[in-house]
Design brief:
Rossmann fold, about 260 residues, seven-stranded mixed beta sheet, alpha/beta
Length: about 260
């Protein structure tokens, strides 16, 4: 067998199914919109993402899975039009509110999921998908991103397959299967005839700035699911004896994948 015979889109779907990961519905993200919006324009991750972008010749940007506008708002001042797309209405509300607060009149939003009809989603010069590509069908998602971009595409996808530090999983005695990481995307893009650039962004994980144990436990539960009484006590016991560095855990790593559209 050669690599050309491998259907990486199907492998991705099979891997995602084995991970038993339950997709969070829009209401779960609605509940986080306010907190995420407060950090949207002061994020080291966003700074590193934007620093890797080339906006030359671009007037418009489509931000897919935009959340509160972490990337789209960071570059809106350099563009004529920014379109945020998300399936959480509260995230879109937060993006519009932040845009208004910062005097950005060129920002609009679309309430869509990855799987919805995208016939009315505009083609833009730049398309970004920041930390939003753990989707059911990544091959179709990549095709959509490519189709909607005139010039360039920028996305980040998880490295290593775990949203929660495996060390924390071990503490509560719950080993979570990995989700498919970025290597699938590279191989799918190769099959599409696209040769992307690859870089990495590392930053502190979600547990690093937890203010106390209750906050820490809520953040763990967000990623792994509700903790039972035994798991909570195991986590509490560990938390009380852990050093600040151990509580912060290992940094999250994201693969930064980008490519140029080749003129037809």
């Amino acid at each position: 067998m050669t690599i050309e015979a491998i259907d990486f889109g199907r492998l991705y779907r099979d891997h995602l199914a084995m991970s038993q990961r339950t997709r969070k519905d829009p209401s779960a993200w609605d509940s986080r919109a306010a907190g995420m919006a407060s950090k949207a324009l002061r994020s080291r991750y966003a700074d590193e993402f934007v620093a890797r972008m080339d906006l030359s010749g671009a007037a418009s940007l489509l931000d897919v899975g935009c959340g509160p506008g972490t990337i789209g708002l960071a570059v809106a001042g350099q563009l004529q039009r920014v379109v945020g797309l998300d399936y959480s209405s509260a995230m879109l509300d937060a993006m519009r509110s932040k845009a208004a607060q910062n005097g950005l009149g060129n920002v609009e939003t679309l309430h869509r999921a990855w799987e919805d009809d995208w016939s009315d989603v505009p083609q833009c010069d730049i398309v970004v998908a920041s930390r939003s590509t753990t989707v059911e069908d990544i091959a179709t998602a990549l095709e959509r991103l490519h189709a909607k971009a005139r010039l360039r595409v920028y996305l980040t996808h998880l490295v290593g397959g775990h949203f929660t530090d495996p060390a924390i999983q071990a503490v509560i005695g719950r080993r979570m299967p990995s989700v498919p990481d970025y290597i699938y995307l590279l191989n799918i893009l190769h099959r599409m005839g696209i040769h992307p650039r690859l870089d990495y962004i590392a930053h502190e994980n979600r547990l690093a700035d937890a203010v106390d144990f209750d906050d820490f436990a809520r953040r763990v539960a967000w990623s792994v699911g509700e903790l039972d009484a035994h798991e909570t006590e195991c986590l509490r016991s560990w938390y009380q004896r852990a050093t600040p560095q151990q509580r912060r855990g290992t940094p999250m790593r994201w693969a930064f994948i980008s490519w140029e559209k080749v003129p037809c």
